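Re: your question about Neutral metalloproteinase

S., sorry for the slow reply, the queue was backed up all week. Below is exactly what I fed in.
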Amino acid sequence: MRPHSRHRHSLHCILPPYLSREIARNGTREQRERILRTLSIDTTFRSMRVARGAMIPLGQRLIPSPMMVESQLQRTIYDMKNTEALPGTVVRTEGQGDTSDVCVNEAYNGLGATYDLFWEVFARNSIDGMGMPLHAHVHYGENYNNAFWDGERMVFGDGDGDLFNRFTIAVDIIGHELTHGVTEHDGPLTYFSQSGALNESISDVFGSLVKQRVLNQKADQADWLIGEGLFTDNVEGVALRSMKDPGTAYDDDVLGKDPQPGHMRSFVKTWEDNGGVHINSGIPNRAFYLVATQLGGYAWERAGHIWYEALRDPRLRSNAGFGSFARLTVMAAGRLYGSDKDEEKAVRDAWNQVGIRVSRERAGEPAWGPGVQLPQQAQQQPPTH
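Result:
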Protein backbone atom coordinates (compact mmCIF):
# COMPACT_ATOMS: atom_id res chain seq x y z
CA MET A 1 0.00 0.00 0.00
CA ARG A 2 1.35 3.38 -0.96
CA PRO A 3 1.89 6.44 1.23
CA HIS A 4 -1.15 8.69 1.13
CA SER A 5 -1.20 12.31 0.10
CA ARG A 6 -3.53 15.06 1.24
CA HIS A 7 -5.73 14.42 -1.78
CA ARG A 8 -9.13 12.86 -1.22
CA HIS A 9 -11.15 11.67 -4.17
CA SER A 10 -14.57 12.95 -5.07
CA LEU A 11 -17.64 11.21 -3.75
CA HIS A 12 -18.10 8.19 -6.00
CA CYS A 13 -21.70 7.77 -7.17
CA ILE A 14 -22.90 5.03 -9.48
CA LEU A 15 -25.32 7.26 -11.41
CA PRO A 16 -23.38 9.33 -13.98
CA PRO A 17 -24.09 13.08 -13.88
CA TYR A 18 -24.84 13.20 -17.62
CA LEU A 19 -27.70 10.74 -17.06
CA SER A 20 -29.08 12.89 -14.24
CA ARG A 21 -28.84 15.90 -16.53
CA GLU A 22 -30.93 14.19 -19.19
CA ILE A 23 -33.63 13.32 -16.66
CA ALA A 24 -33.70 16.94 -15.47
CA ARG A 25 -34.02 18.06 -19.09
CA ASN A 26 -36.50 15.51 -20.46
CA GLY A 27 -38.39 14.10 -17.50
CA THR A 28 -41.78 14.90 -16.05
CA ARG A 29 -42.07 17.44 -13.26
CA GLU A 30 -41.98 14.65 -10.66
CA GLN A 31 -38.96 13.00 -12.30
CA ARG A 32 -37.11 16.32 -12.44
CA GLU A 33 -37.85 17.08 -8.80
CA ARG A 34 -36.60 13.68 -7.67
CA ILE A 35 -33.35 13.81 -9.62
CA LEU A 36 -32.64 17.40 -8.57
CA ARG A 37 -33.15 16.35 -4.95
CA THR A 38 -30.70 13.48 -5.48
CA LEU A 39 -28.14 15.84 -7.02
CA SER A 40 -28.53 18.23 -4.09
CA ILE A 41 -27.79 15.43 -1.61
CA ASP A 42 -24.78 14.27 -3.63
CA THR A 43 -23.35 17.80 -3.68
CA THR A 44 -23.73 18.07 0.10
CA PHE A 45 -21.87 14.80 0.67
CA ARG A 46 -19.05 15.91 -1.64
CA SER A 47 -18.63 19.13 0.35
CA MET A 48 -18.65 17.23 3.65
CA ARG A 49 -16.02 14.81 2.38
CA VAL A 50 -13.68 17.57 1.24
CA ALA A 51 -14.07 19.34 4.59
CA ARG A 52 -13.47 16.12 6.54
CA GLY A 53 -10.33 15.39 4.54
CA ALA A 54 -9.01 18.90 5.15
CA MET A 55 -9.50 18.66 8.91
CA ILE A 56 -7.75 15.33 9.47
CA PRO A 57 -4.00 15.74 10.05
CA LEU A 58 -1.95 14.08 7.33
CA GLY A 59 -0.28 11.60 9.65
CA GLN A 60 -3.61 10.37 11.03
CA ARG A 61 -5.41 9.59 7.77
CA LEU A 62 -6.34 6.12 6.65
CA ILE A 63 -4.45 4.42 9.47
CA PRO A 64 -6.40 1.31 10.49
CA SER A 65 -7.29 0.74 14.12
CA PRO A 66 -6.29 -2.52 15.83
CA MET A 67 -9.78 -3.87 15.11
CA MET A 68 -9.12 -3.56 11.37
CA VAL A 69 -6.31 -6.05 11.03
CA GLU A 70 -8.03 -9.44 11.39
CA SER A 71 -8.19 -11.53 8.24
CA GLN A 72 -11.93 -12.02 8.34
CA LEU A 73 -15.04 -10.48 6.87
CA GLN A 74 -16.86 -7.98 9.10
CA ARG A 75 -20.15 -6.60 7.74
CA THR A 76 -22.71 -4.30 9.32
CA ILE A 77 -25.92 -3.24 7.59
CA TYR A 78 -27.89 -0.19 8.74
CA ASP A 79 -31.48 0.71 7.91
CA MET A 80 -31.91 4.44 7.25
CA LYS A 81 -35.72 4.09 7.17
CA ASN A 82 -35.88 6.63 4.34
CA THR A 83 -34.22 9.36 6.40
CA GLU A 84 -30.91 11.11 5.69
CA ALA A 85 -29.53 11.02 9.23
CA LEU A 86 -26.61 8.59 9.14
CA PRO A 87 -25.83 6.01 10.40
CA GLY A 88 -29.35 4.60 10.92
CA THR A 89 -30.30 1.46 12.84
CA VAL A 90 -28.18 -1.70 12.81
CA VAL A 91 -30.31 -4.50 11.32
CA ARG A 92 -27.76 -7.19 10.40
CA THR A 93 -24.22 -7.96 11.47
CA GLU A 94 -21.64 -10.54 10.47
CA GLY A 95 -22.87 -14.11 10.73
CA GLN A 96 -26.55 -13.32 11.16
CA GLY A 97 -29.06 -14.92 8.80
CA ASP A 98 -31.30 -13.36 6.18
CA THR A 99 -33.87 -10.80 7.19
CA SER A 100 -37.26 -10.10 5.62
CA ASP A 101 -35.82 -7.01 3.91
CA VAL A 102 -34.46 -7.78 0.43
CA CYS A 103 -32.32 -4.61 0.40
CA VAL A 104 -30.60 -5.60 3.65
CA ASN A 105 -29.87 -9.08 2.31
CA GLU A 106 -28.64 -7.81 -1.08
CA ALA A 107 -26.30 -5.30 0.57
CA TYR A 108 -24.97 -7.93 2.99
CA ASN A 109 -24.38 -10.45 0.21
CA GLY A 110 -22.86 -7.85 -2.10
CA LEU A 111 -20.34 -6.75 0.52
CA GLY A 112 -19.45 -10.39 1.10
CA ALA A 113 -19.08 -11.21 -2.58
CA THR A 114 -16.77 -8.23 -3.09
CA TYR A 115 -14.67 -9.10 -0.04
CA ASP A 116 -14.44 -12.72 -1.22
CA LEU A 117 -13.21 -11.74 -4.68
CA PHE A 118 -10.38 -9.61 -3.32
CA TRP A 119 -9.48 -12.03 -0.50
CA GLU A 120 -9.79 -15.38 -2.24
CA VAL A 121 -8.51 -14.33 -5.69
CA PHE A 122 -6.06 -11.51 -4.94
CA ALA A 123 -5.18 -12.25 -1.27
CA ARG A 124 -6.34 -8.77 -0.30
CA ASN A 125 -7.85 -8.42 3.15
CA SER A 126 -10.77 -6.05 2.57
CA ILE A 127 -10.76 -2.64 0.90
CA ASP A 128 -7.65 -1.27 2.59
CA GLY A 129 -5.79 -4.59 2.61
CA MET A 130 -5.82 -4.62 6.43
CA GLY A 131 -9.24 -5.98 7.31
CA MET A 132 -11.33 -2.82 7.07
CA PRO A 133 -14.90 -3.57 8.29
CA LEU A 134 -17.55 -3.04 5.62
CA HIS A 135 -20.62 -0.93 6.33
CA ALA A 136 -23.72 -0.45 4.18
CA HIS A 137 -26.65 1.86 4.76
CA VAL A 138 -29.88 1.00 2.92
CA HIS A 139 -33.19 2.85 2.42
CA TYR A 140 -31.38 6.19 2.33
CA GLY A 141 -33.69 9.19 1.81
CA GLU A 142 -36.95 9.24 -0.11
CA ASN A 143 -36.84 8.32 -3.80
CA TYR A 144 -33.06 8.70 -3.70
CA ASN A 145 -31.78 7.68 -7.12
CA ASN A 146 -28.18 6.76 -6.40
CA ALA A 147 -25.66 4.66 -4.49
CA PHE A 148 -22.25 5.89 -3.39
CA TRP A 149 -19.01 5.14 -1.58
CA ASP A 150 -17.82 8.06 0.57
CA GLY A 151 -14.51 6.60 1.70
CA GLU A 152 -15.98 4.92 4.77
CA ARG A 153 -19.31 3.36 3.84
CA MET A 154 -21.71 2.31 1.11
CA VAL A 155 -25.03 4.16 0.93
CA PHE A 156 -27.98 2.95 -1.15
CA GLY A 157 -31.15 4.69 -2.20
CA ASP A 158 -34.37 2.83 -2.95
CA GLY A 159 -34.81 4.45 -6.35
CA ASP A 160 -38.05 6.10 -7.35
CA GLY A 161 -39.80 3.03 -8.75
CA ASP A 162 -40.46 5.04 -11.89
CA LEU A 163 -37.09 5.07 -13.68
CA PHE A 164 -34.93 3.25 -11.15
CA ASN A 165 -35.32 0.18 -8.99
CA ARG A 166 -33.58 -0.22 -5.64
CA PHE A 167 -29.83 0.38 -5.91
CA THR A 168 -28.92 -2.82 -4.06
CA ILE A 169 -30.37 -4.87 -6.91
CA ALA A 170 -27.12 -5.25 -8.87
CA VAL A 171 -24.16 -6.88 -7.13
CA ASP A 172 -21.76 -5.34 -9.65
CA ILE A 173 -22.82 -1.88 -8.47
CA ILE A 174 -21.76 -2.85 -4.95
CA GLY A 175 -18.48 -4.25 -6.24
CA HIS A 176 -17.95 -1.14 -8.36
CA GLU A 177 -18.36 1.27 -5.48
CA LEU A 178 -16.21 -0.69 -3.04
CA THR A 179 -13.45 -0.94 -5.65
CA HIS A 180 -13.22 2.86 -5.56
CA GLY A 181 -11.95 2.31 -2.03
CA VAL A 182 -9.33 -0.15 -3.28
CA THR A 183 -8.17 2.39 -5.88
CA GLU A 184 -7.99 5.10 -3.22
CA HIS A 185 -5.69 2.98 -1.12
CA ASP A 186 -3.53 1.50 -3.87
CA GLY A 187 -3.81 3.95 -6.78
CA PRO A 188 -4.61 6.61 -6.30
CA LEU A 189 -5.89 7.88 -9.65
CA THR A 190 -6.89 11.54 -9.78
CA TYR A 191 -10.61 11.81 -10.47
CA PHE A 192 -10.32 13.86 -13.65
CA SER A 193 -10.10 13.23 -17.40
CA GLN A 194 -8.30 10.01 -18.41
CA SER A 195 -7.00 9.15 -14.94
CA GLY A 196 -10.54 9.58 -13.63
CA ALA A 197 -11.93 7.46 -16.45
CA LEU A 198 -9.39 4.77 -15.52
CA ASN A 199 -10.61 5.07 -11.92
CA GLU A 200 -14.18 4.45 -13.08
CA SER A 201 -13.15 1.68 -15.46
CA ILE A 202 -11.23 -0.21 -12.78
CA SER A 203 -14.36 -0.13 -10.62
CA ASP A 204 -16.41 -1.46 -13.53
CA VAL A 205 -13.84 -4.19 -14.15
CA PHE A 206 -13.82 -5.53 -10.61
CA GLY A 207 -17.54 -4.92 -10.16
CA SER A 208 -18.13 -7.10 -13.20
CA LEU A 209 -15.74 -9.74 -11.84
CA VAL A 210 -17.73 -9.83 -8.58
CA LYS A 211 -20.91 -10.46 -10.55
CA GLN A 212 -19.33 -13.09 -12.80
CA ARG A 213 -17.88 -14.93 -9.81
CA VAL A 214 -21.22 -14.93 -7.98
CA LEU A 215 -22.85 -16.39 -11.10
CA ASN A 216 -19.89 -18.74 -11.78
CA GLN A 217 -19.64 -17.40 -15.33
CA LYS A 218 -16.71 -17.67 -17.68
CA ALA A 219 -15.83 -14.67 -19.80
CA ASP A 220 -17.81 -15.83 -22.81
CA GLN A 221 -20.91 -16.46 -20.67
CA ALA A 222 -21.06 -13.04 -19.01
CA ASP A 223 -23.26 -10.20 -20.26
CA TRP A 224 -20.59 -7.58 -19.38
CA LEU A 225 -23.31 -5.14 -18.33
CA ILE A 226 -22.90 -2.76 -15.39
CA GLY A 227 -26.08 -2.19 -13.38
CA GLU A 228 -28.31 -4.70 -15.16
CA GLY A 229 -31.73 -4.66 -13.45
CA LEU A 230 -31.40 -1.10 -12.15
CA PHE A 231 -33.77 0.37 -14.74
CA THR A 232 -37.51 -0.20 -14.40
CA ASP A 233 -39.60 -1.45 -17.31
CA ASN A 234 -40.37 2.20 -18.13
CA VAL A 235 -36.83 2.68 -19.45
CA GLU A 236 -35.61 1.60 -22.88
CA GLY A 237 -32.33 0.11 -21.78
CA VAL A 238 -30.65 -2.87 -20.16
CA ALA A 239 -28.05 -1.32 -17.86
CA LEU A 240 -25.98 1.78 -17.07
CA ARG A 241 -23.04 0.65 -19.21
CA SER A 242 -21.88 -2.14 -21.49
CA MET A 243 -18.24 -3.15 -21.31
CA LYS A 244 -18.63 -5.35 -24.35
CA ASP A 245 -20.21 -2.69 -26.57
CA PRO A 246 -19.95 0.80 -25.02
CA GLY A 247 -22.69 3.16 -26.16
CA THR A 248 -25.44 0.53 -26.43
CA ALA A 249 -26.66 0.15 -22.84
CA TYR A 250 -29.71 2.40 -23.22
CA ASP A 251 -31.50 4.69 -25.64
CA ASP A 252 -34.46 6.31 -23.92
CA ASP A 253 -36.65 9.38 -24.38
CA VAL A 254 -35.97 10.55 -20.82
CA LEU A 255 -32.47 9.19 -20.11
CA GLY A 256 -31.13 9.93 -23.58
CA LYS A 257 -28.62 7.80 -25.48
CA ASP A 258 -25.72 6.00 -23.82
CA PRO A 259 -22.77 8.33 -24.68
CA GLN A 260 -19.86 5.97 -24.02
CA PRO A 261 -17.24 5.49 -26.75
CA GLY A 262 -15.37 2.23 -27.21
CA HIS A 263 -12.42 3.60 -29.23
CA MET A 264 -10.03 6.53 -28.94
CA ARG A 265 -11.25 8.01 -32.23
CA SER A 266 -14.53 8.77 -30.42
CA PHE A 267 -12.96 10.08 -27.20
CA VAL A 268 -15.32 12.70 -25.74
CA LYS A 269 -13.69 16.03 -24.90
CA THR A 270 -15.62 17.74 -22.13
CA TRP A 271 -15.27 19.54 -18.81
CA GLU A 272 -18.51 17.97 -17.61
CA ASP A 273 -18.42 14.87 -15.39
CA ASN A 274 -14.89 15.68 -14.19
CA GLY A 275 -13.65 15.60 -17.75
CA GLY A 276 -15.84 12.70 -18.87
CA VAL A 277 -14.82 10.10 -16.27
CA HIS A 278 -18.03 8.06 -16.63
CA ILE A 279 -18.12 8.53 -20.41
CA ASN A 280 -14.62 7.72 -21.61
CA SER A 281 -14.27 4.80 -19.19
CA GLY A 282 -15.92 2.80 -21.99
CA ILE A 283 -12.56 2.68 -23.80
CA PRO A 284 -10.51 0.85 -21.12
CA ASN A 285 -13.65 -1.14 -20.25
CA ARG A 286 -13.75 -2.59 -23.74
CA ALA A 287 -10.02 -3.28 -23.61
CA PHE A 288 -10.49 -5.43 -20.52
CA TYR A 289 -13.46 -7.23 -22.10
CA LEU A 290 -11.33 -8.02 -25.16
CA VAL A 291 -8.48 -9.38 -23.00
CA ALA A 292 -10.80 -11.52 -20.88
CA THR A 293 -12.65 -13.05 -23.82
CA GLN A 294 -9.45 -13.60 -25.80
CA LEU A 295 -7.85 -15.48 -22.92
CA GLY A 296 -11.05 -17.34 -22.07
CA GLY A 297 -11.92 -19.11 -18.85
CA TYR A 298 -12.84 -17.14 -15.75
CA ALA A 299 -12.05 -13.45 -16.24
CA TRP A 300 -10.84 -12.98 -12.67
CA GLU A 301 -8.05 -15.46 -13.18
CA ARG A 302 -5.57 -14.14 -15.75
CA ALA A 303 -7.16 -10.87 -16.97
CA GLY A 304 -8.16 -9.85 -13.44
CA HIS A 305 -4.70 -10.52 -12.04
CA ILE A 306 -3.09 -8.46 -14.81
CA TRP A 307 -5.31 -5.44 -14.08
CA TYR A 308 -4.83 -5.79 -10.33
CA GLU A 309 -1.05 -5.89 -10.67
CA ALA A 310 -1.11 -2.83 -12.93
CA LEU A 311 -3.22 -0.92 -10.40
CA ARG A 312 -0.71 -1.74 -7.64
CA ASP A 313 2.38 -1.00 -9.75
CA PRO A 314 4.39 1.76 -8.00
CA ARG A 315 5.04 3.31 -11.41
CA LEU A 316 1.36 4.15 -11.83
CA ARG A 317 1.09 7.93 -11.59
CA SER A 318 -1.92 9.67 -10.06
CA ASN A 319 -2.58 11.47 -13.36
CA ALA A 320 -1.89 8.44 -15.56
CA GLY A 321 -3.55 8.36 -18.96
CA PHE A 322 -4.86 5.38 -20.87
CA GLY A 323 -1.53 4.84 -22.61
CA SER A 324 0.42 4.76 -19.36
CA PHE A 325 -1.96 2.28 -17.80
CA ALA A 326 -2.01 0.17 -20.95
CA ARG A 327 1.78 -0.07 -20.84
CA LEU A 328 1.64 -1.21 -17.21
CA THR A 329 -0.89 -3.93 -18.03
CA VAL A 330 1.35 -5.25 -20.82
CA MET A 331 4.30 -5.25 -18.43
CA ALA A 332 2.20 -6.99 -15.76
CA ALA A 333 1.15 -9.68 -18.23
CA GLY A 334 4.76 -10.33 -19.17
CA ARG A 335 5.88 -10.35 -15.55
CA LEU A 336 3.11 -12.74 -14.44
CA TYR A 337 2.94 -15.11 -17.40
CA GLY A 338 6.10 -14.59 -19.44
CA SER A 339 7.23 -12.26 -22.21
CA ASP A 340 5.59 -12.78 -25.61
CA LYS A 341 3.19 -15.35 -24.19
CA ASP A 342 -0.54 -15.45 -24.98
CA GLU A 343 -1.40 -13.16 -22.06
CA GLU A 344 0.96 -10.36 -23.08
CA LYS A 345 -0.10 -10.64 -26.72
CA ALA A 346 -3.79 -10.52 -25.77
CA VAL A 347 -3.32 -7.39 -23.65
CA ARG A 348 -1.30 -5.58 -26.29
CA ASP A 349 -3.82 -6.53 -29.00
CA ALA A 350 -6.80 -5.44 -26.91
CA TRP A 351 -5.43 -1.96 -26.34
CA ASN A 352 -4.58 -1.70 -30.02
CA GLN A 353 -8.19 -2.55 -30.88
CA VAL A 354 -9.44 0.44 -28.87
CA GLY A 355 -6.91 2.78 -30.48
CA ILE A 356 -4.06 2.70 -27.98
CA ARG A 357 -0.77 1.38 -29.34
CA VAL A 358 1.68 0.08 -26.76
CA SER A 359 5.19 -0.11 -28.19
CA ARG A 360 8.08 -1.94 -26.57
CA GLU A 361 10.37 1.06 -26.74
CA ARG A 362 8.23 3.55 -24.86
CA ALA A 363 7.93 3.49 -21.10
CA GLY A 364 4.41 4.87 -21.26
CA GLU A 365 2.25 7.46 -22.91
CA PRO A 366 1.76 11.06 -21.76
CA ALA A 367 -0.54 11.47 -18.79
CA TRP A 368 -3.52 12.37 -20.96
CA GLY A 369 -2.95 9.55 -23.45
CA PRO A 370 -1.87 9.30 -27.08
CA GLY A 371 -3.12 11.99 -29.38
CA VAL A 372 -5.66 13.40 -26.91
CA GLN A 373 -5.80 17.07 -26.02
CA LEU A 374 -7.60 18.57 -23.08
CA PRO A 375 -10.89 20.23 -24.08
CA GLN A 376 -10.63 23.86 -25.12
CA GLN A 377 -14.15 24.63 -24.01
CA ALA A 378 -16.88 23.08 -21.94
CA GLN A 379 -18.60 21.44 -24.86
CA GLN A 380 -19.43 17.77 -25.07
CA GLN A 381 -18.93 16.05 -28.39
CA PRO A 382 -21.09 12.96 -28.84
CA PRO A 383 -19.15 9.83 -29.76
CA THR A 384 -19.45 8.18 -33.15
CA HIS A 385 -19.82 4.43 -33.29
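Strands lie at 12-13, 75-79, 89-93, 134-140, 147-149, 154-157, 225-226, 241-242, 251-252, 256-257. The two ends are 39 Å apart (CA to CA).

Happy to talk it through on Thursday.
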